[in-house]
Amino acid sequence: MLTLILGLILFFGLHSVAIVAPFWRERMLLFVGQGAWKAVYSLLSLAGFVLMVVGFAHARQMPVVLYVPAGWLRYLTFILMLPVFPLLLAAYLPGAIQAKAKHPMLAAVKLWATAHLLAAGTLADVLLFGAFLLWAIVDRISLKRRVKASPPHAPPSRFNDLIAVVLGLALYALFLLRLHVMLIGVSPLAPPGL
Fold first, then answer.
1. Cβ atoms < 10 Å from Cβ of 18
2. Which pLDDT band, with edges at 50, 70 and 90, does 70 fall under?
3. Buried b (16+ CB within 10 A) or exposed e, 94-132
C-alpha cells in the first residue's frame, strides 16, 4: 500500500504544481530550459505512474474491503463510462464537444474515477480512483482562476466531434471486450464476484 501512496503523492504532486503555484513552472522553464524541464517532469511523472500501478497491483493481492457495491451499480458504471473515451479524444479534437465541456479531459477523468468508485470498494480502489476524482475536481476549480495552455490538438474540422464519438466508442468497446482484461487483469463483463 505504501508504494501506491508514494506513487499517488509523486504523480499528483507534480500534476498539482499549477494549482498551488501557477507561475512556478514558468520560472523553472526560464531557469533550466524547456527540454530539461520536460525531461525531468516526464521522468518523475512516469516514476509516479509506475509506483501507482505496481502499488495498486500489490494491494489487490490482499484487498482491504471498505464496501461492497450493490449489483445494479455495475450497470450505472457501464453508462458513466460511455462518454469517457469520446471526451478524452475531444480534448485533442476542437469541436462542439470540446467547447461545451470546456475541459473534456478533466470531465473524462471525473466520470472514469466515479464509475470505478461505484464498481469497486477496496481501500486501494478508493485511494486510486478517489485521488483521481479529487484531483480532477480541484484542478477544474483552479482553472477558473488561471490561464491554462491548450494541449496540442488537431486542426479544427467539422468532423472532429464525429471522430471523437465514433473512435471513442470503439475504444470503449475494445476496453470492455479485450484491453481491460489484458492491461488490468479484470474483466468488466465477468459476473460479479468472479
1. 19
2. very high
3. bbebbeebebbbbbbbbbbbbbbbbbbbbebbbbbbebb
Q: Helix, strand, or coil here: 95?
A: coil
| Rama region for 185: left / alpha / beta (φ>0; ψ in -120 to 50; rest) | left
Query: Residue 188 is placed in which grid cell?
Result: 468488466
What is the C-alpha separation between 55 and 4, in angstroms, rounded?
4
Domain shared by 118 and 137, yes or no: yes
Residues 27 and 99 in one domain: no
pTM: 0.89
C-alpha dist (Å) from residue 129 to 1, 34, 59, 114: 14, 31, 14, 7
Domain span at residue 49 reads: 1-62
Instruction: Please count the other Cβ atoms lying within 10 Å of the Cβ belonging to residue 33.
Output: 11
Residue 56 C-alpha cell reads as 495498486
